[in-house]
C-alpha cells in the first residue's frame, strides 16, 4: 500500500471511476468545477493506492471567502472516501492528518466540509456559521401578470455571466468567484439557472432537483423579475415547494423571501476547523473593532485551543488588536469549542458557562460567513 500522495493528471480516470463508484453519482459532472484533468486541479487530491488501485482519497480545494472586509483563505474538504473493505484501517485518519499539514503550508485560515458531525468532530471540525433556511410553498405564489419579459435558460453568454457576476459581487458574505469559476459552477450537472430580462432589468434563479420539491440555490436581480421567475418555475415544473438558504446579512432579497415563504429559520453553514487562529482574528479585526465600540474594554484576553496548542491574544484599548502569546486572562477551549465560540450559531454565553467578566464576548462573536450551495465541494 502506498503512502498518501498528491494525485496527478495520470490519476484522473482512476480517481473519477473510484469516486463515481463510492458516491453513486457522476462526480465529474456534478462537481465539474473541482474535478478537471489538469495538474493544478488534480494536485488538490490526496490518494492512497493498493496493488495499483485507488482505495482511499480526500480533496483539499481552495476557496476564498469574503466576509465584509475580511478575506479568508479556506481549504474546502471534499470527496472523502475509502473502499469499503479497506475501512477501519486508519486510512482516512492518515489522509485528514496529511490534509491539515497541507492546509497549514498553504496558509489557510480555516477548513470547511460537509459530512457526519460525529465522524469529523474527532478531527477538529464542528458545525458552524449561520444561514436563513426557508421554504416557499405553491400556495404562497400569487399568479403574476405577464410583463412581456424574456424568460429563458442561462446561456453562458458574456452578457448573462456579467449580470450574474455583478449581482453576486454585491453580497457582503460570499465566495470570491472569477468569471471562469462562475461559469464552471453555473454549469454543474443537476443545477439549472433561469434568467429574466426586460430592457436593462435582469434577474436570475438557480434551482436543483428533479421532483416537485426542489432546492432554490441562488437568486438575484430585479424583484419583479424574481416574482415572475418564481411563478414560471412553479408552473413549468408543477412544483409543490422550493427550499433554500440565504446568508445572514442585510439584503433586499430577505423581505422578498419572507413574503413568499411558508416557514423559515436558521441553520448552520457547514463544518469548520480553525487552521490558524491568529490569522482568523486578524482578518476580522475591523469587524471586532466595530462591534467593540462603546464597551469601554481595557486589558487583554488570550484564546487558547487546547487540542492544537494555538494561542492568540486580544488587546482591548482604543480598539481591538490581535497579538501572539499569552497575555491577561486565558479562555481555554478545545478546538471544536473554539469554532463554536467564533463561528457558532448563538452568542458565546449561550453555548458556554462564561465567567461574568467575559460576557462582553457576546458583543464580539459569533462572526458570520457564507458558502452558497453552488460553491460547495
Global structural class: alpha+beta
Beta-strand residue fraction:
25-35%
What is the second-level CATH architecture of the largest domain?
A: 3-Layer(aba) Sandwich
Q: Share of helix among residues?
A: 25-40%
Characterization of this structure:
- The model has no long low-confidence stretch (mean pLDDT 96).
- By secondary structure, the protein is of the alpha+beta class.
- It has helices at 12-23, 27-30, 39-42, 91-105, 117-121, 158-169, 179-186, 223-236, 253-260, 277-283, 285-292, 335-343, 348-351, 361-364; strands at residues 5-6, 45-50, 53-67, 70-82, 110-113, 126-128, 131-137, 150-153, 173-175, 191-198, 201-208, 213-221, 241-247, 263-267, 270-274, 299-305, 310-316, 320-323, 329-333.
- Strands 1, 2, 3, 4, 5, 6, 9 and 15 form an 8-stranded mixed beta sheet that branches.
- The protein has 3 domains: 5-108, Aminopeptidase (3-Layer(aba) Sandwich), CATH 3.40.630.30; 132-267, 3-Layer(aba) Sandwich (Aminopeptidase); 273-364, 2-Layer Sandwich (Nonspecific Lipid-transfer Protein, Chain A).
Concise synopsis of the structure shown:
This protein has helices at 12-23, 27-30, 39-42, 91-105, 117-121, 158-169, 179-186, 223-236, 253-260, 277-283, 285-292, 335-343, 348-351, 361-364; strands at residues 5-6, 45-50, 53-67, 70-82, 110-113, 126-128, 131-137, 150-153, 173-175, 191-198, 201-208, 213-221, 241-247, 263-267, 270-274, 299-305, 310-316, 320-323, 329-333. It is α+β, with helices and mostly antiparallel strands and 377 residues long. It folds into 3 domains: 5-108, Aminopeptidase; 132-267, 3-Layer(aba) Sandwich (Aminopeptidase), CATH 3.40.630; 273-364, Nonspecific Lipid-transfer Protein, Chain A.
